[in-house]
Amino acid sequence: MNLFAFSRRSGTLGEDIIIVVQYPPTVNITSATRNVVFEGERFVAVCEVEEYGYPTEIIEFYWRGPNKEIYNTNTLTLENITRELDVNYTCIASNEYADGRMGEGSAPLLLDVQYSPSLDMKIHGNASEDGLIVEGDSLTVECIVIDANPQPHVISWFDWKGTKVSSNEWIEFNAVQRNQSGNYTCEATNSFWDGTMGNATTGFSIFVQYIPEVKVTFTDNASSTGTAIEGHSFVAECEVLESNPLHNNVTWFDSDRTVVSLDELVKFNDVSRGQSGNYTCVVTNTFWDGRTGTGTAIMNVDVEYPPSVNEQTVFCVEHDLDVRLSCEVNAHPSPSFYAWARNGDLLSREPTYVIKRANRSDSGNYTCTATNVFYDETNATGSGVTELRVQYLSDVTMATTPLYNITEGSDVTIYCQAVNGNPNPYKVYLTFEGEIIAESNRFALYHDLISISRAQDGNYQCNAMTKFYDQREDLSTDAMQITVFYSARIFSEEFSVYEASVGDDVRMECTADGNPSPTIRWFNNRNETLSNGDDNIRIENVEAGEITSVLTLKIGSNSFGIYTCEAYTFIKPSDFQLMTINEIEEA
User: What is the pLDDT of residues 334-349, one digit of tens each?
Assistant: First the structure.
């Protein structure tokens, strides 16, 4: 505001003073877009006097902007506008005061240049700059808004199919999978002053690398699962179905981790059962970061082979228990059919054949035949012989020489033999009345009794001790009674004297033994044999070969004299005893 004064006469007393206030104009800026413009477009703003100043005459309009001023126009025109022009402009209208100074009225113009977002992105995680990543690794990509006016109100990520996969500036791949390979686009949207939208996109591609995917296939002479028949030949192929990047090595290992092939193919010529087992195909590739990817496929080679029936010997003890013959077979697959036969006769179609209480006649060879069926429906047969050995005790026999009428003082040989046993006895021994008197580690023995005596009369037993397969021991025996015969012997005094008178009774005893039991006979004083049937002769005692004969006489005048007792057997000599009856003389 500027003040100035001038005077005017009005009488005699003095002067009136008039004060005039000068001030600049008030200006206003108008534009069709309300000071907002799209980048790259033309912008026009008009500076208008909203209220004239004093003096009212506008001397000049001009615009003051960044680094320049535009004169002599109330219209500001900006062509092909850029975001760098998003600055303040000022419209100035001037009038001239009385003192020559310029009054200036101004209005600011804040130009708002709107434009779509500018985007960049940043990769976080274990991936290369060009998007290579290994399957299973994790990755985060950040969509960065470098510049935008106004700021975006929507930021989204879309995959290559147009499916939204994130609603913010981050897209995360946790344990990325190969099916996530592809192009991904970040889209940012802002809203302009006129309701239209600004849009910007940026994108990147993921190339997921992964280990080789491997499958094993087989040629002819093997099933699709790796089953083959012993002696056949076949080839297994390690087929690489997928690999990113391409594989660079193929190696076959057996179950012992021994390399068996450095090629996709592994050959089995005349395959044997010992080659059954797991085989591993290992295929490798190299990832972008130098790590090695390893893909594996395991095949199980299952070699089938014909039955092999074990040859065996089975032991049992006669009449001990039932015998169970088992067909022990090594075959793959297990046999489907069995047959037991002996001497061509079919006994059973079961894997086990049972013989009830086997006896020695069951000993012999039994043939088991087993048949299995291979994966291709062919079959194979194997046979084996089981020898059954039924063990049993020996037959024991005894004999003597001489066989009969063994007499005291003679030489006797006892023969003891064990025959027909299985196995043979390991010891044969001879006992007399339970006491061992001879033994042998062979299955027969001879024992001599020199000048046998009656004390050696008694029970003799031949014993054969057998040890069976299960270490049990058992005994077979034979016994015989040896009787030693010997001649008669009288126990009484050699000469006996009896004193008697006529009419007396005289009792005379004669006791003898012998084997066999002796016979006793009497002779009278006239050497006449007295009959054993007479009432005056009787046998009073017979015990264990001992006999007592009693002669009782009624003494007559002719009864005095010598009497004889004779004891005898079939063995000579006889034994005699003399007895005298003397008459008692009268006083």
Answer: 999 999 999 999 999 9
